[in-house]
Write a structure and sequence with these properties.
The protein has 360 residues and is of the alpha+beta class. It has helices spanning 47-55, 97-107, 112-125, 130-133, 143-156, 173-190, 201-207, 225-230, 235-240, and strands at residues 9-18, 21-31, 36-40, 62-67, 70-71, 82-85, 161-165, 193-198, 210-215, 218-223, 245-251, 256-261, 264-269, 282-287, 293-295, 303-315, 318-326, 329-336, 345-350, 355-359. The strands form four sheets. Strands 6-7-8-3-9-10 form a six-stranded mixed sheet, with helices on both faces. It has a five-stranded antiparallel sheet with strand order 13-12-11-14-20, with no helix packed on it. It has a five-stranded antiparallel sheet with strand order 15-19-16-17-18, with no helix packed on it. β4 and β5 form a beta hairpin.
Length: 360
């Protein structure tokens, strides 16, 4: 999704301090109307603090939060046209599924008939048959069913933006994958703006139009998941976005480099994207595991290096290899299962265009 000229939500130079500690430090980004935007980062990165400011549970120390151009820093949560789905779901255990979903409509004064009609519509939308679930106590529902009830209740508020605080983290892996797809389908069908917070890279990659990666209260990079994966800004982003090989290199004067590979020093040709680099500069050379391949004698590859296979692991349709270049230096390789098996002693190769230079 392309960011629109008039965003629905804008975070402008926002900082949140607790004493001398800046949990969020000078953060800026925009969310477009109808976008699935995800804040992702490790524990302590500031994503939850940022979310709490967006929903009104915390106030920024400095900076502005703007909803359709209007500053909302001091606007109470209940006065914002937004809704939040918590990790704990916060459903009412003494109520049925139907009454949980109807709650936002009741407090807005909707008639009993309108409440029931809308609740049935939303339960159908969330794949919960109203004939089975409307009168069922919410405590008798499974984890996935309760998650759907929480989503139906959030949609009953008819918010302009739905915020999510790691709502799938307590579910098992199979159910989590199912609900990831359902959440994305739901966002597309309702055309609502979703702002999602998670520490799970998988969730961010599967569901998001754009992702903001946080570290220590700062946004390291924002973009579409595939774009960030292909062109990470730095080593932290590269490693956060999945398995990666980062080679320590020293730039030479002729467009080549020396790779400090454990006990070996190996000459390499750099990709054209490296541009002009100062001789002697220390950098990281990024190569994704899937870009590496086992080559046969005479096969042309941009760079090659002899390796010894230490181990291999089945990943379903793929096989992952851990190979040793020299003592103290290993690489990770991923190949399709149907490709020929590598021998214990092999030659590894990669095309120059499949590598990238990053700051050391």
């Amino acid at each position: 999704m392309v960011e629109s000229a008039a965003p629905i939500l804008e975070v402008a130079n926002v900082t949140k301090r607790f004493g001398a500690f800046a949990a969020v430090n000078d953060v800026s980004f925009k969310i477009s109307d109808g976008e699935f935007f995800t804040l992702v980062g490790p524990s302590g990165s500031g994503k939850t603090t940022l979310l709490r400011m967006l929903v009104g549970m915390e106030k920024p120390t400095t900076g502005e939060l703007r909803l359709r151009g209007k500053v909302i820093n001091d606007l109470a949560p209940n006065l914002r046209p937004t809704c939040m789905v918590f990790q704990s779901l916060a459903l009412f255990p003494h109520m049925t599924v139907g009454k949980n979903v109807e709650f936002p409509l009741n407090i807005r004064g909707a008639s009993q008939g309108d409440c029931r009609t809308r609740a049935w519509e939303l339960l159908k939308l969330l794949h919960l048959d109203p004939n089975r679930y409307y009168d069922k106590n919410v405590t008798q529902c499974s984890g996935g069913e309760r998650q759907r009830v929480a989503l139906a209740r959030a949609l009953a508020y008819d918010p302009e933006i739905l915020f999510f605080d790691e709502p799938l983290s307590a579910l098992d892996a199979r159910l989590r994958k199912t609900l990831q797809k359902e959440l994305k389908d739901l966002q597309r069908s309702t055309k609502k703006t979703f702002c999602y917070v998670t520490h799970s890279l998988e969730e961010a990659m599967v569901m998001s139009d754009r992702v903001a990666i946080l570290r220590a209260g700062v946004i390291e990079q924002i973009g579409q998941p595939d774009e960030i994966y292909a062109n990470p800004k730095n080593a932290f982003v590269a490693e956060f976005m999945g398995e990666v090989n980062l080679l320590d290199i020293i730039v030479a004067a002729d467009g080549t480099a020396l790779w400090e590979a454990g006990r070996k020093t190996i000459p390499l040709t750099l990709p054209a994207s490296a541009g002009a680099l100062e001789a002697g500069a220390k950098r990281k050379l990024l190569i994704r595991p899937e870009a590496l391949r086992f080559v046969v004698p005479g096969e042309v590859a941009g760079n090659t290096v002899p390796v010894r296979i230490l181990n291999q692991f089945s990943l379903g349709s793929r096989v992952q290899y851990h190979v040793e270049v020299s003592p103290g230096c290993t690489l990770t390789v991923e190949r399709l299962r149907e490709e020929r098996s590598a021998t214990a002693e092999a030659v590894l190769g990669w095309e120059l265009a499949d590598s990238q230079i990053l700051e050391a």
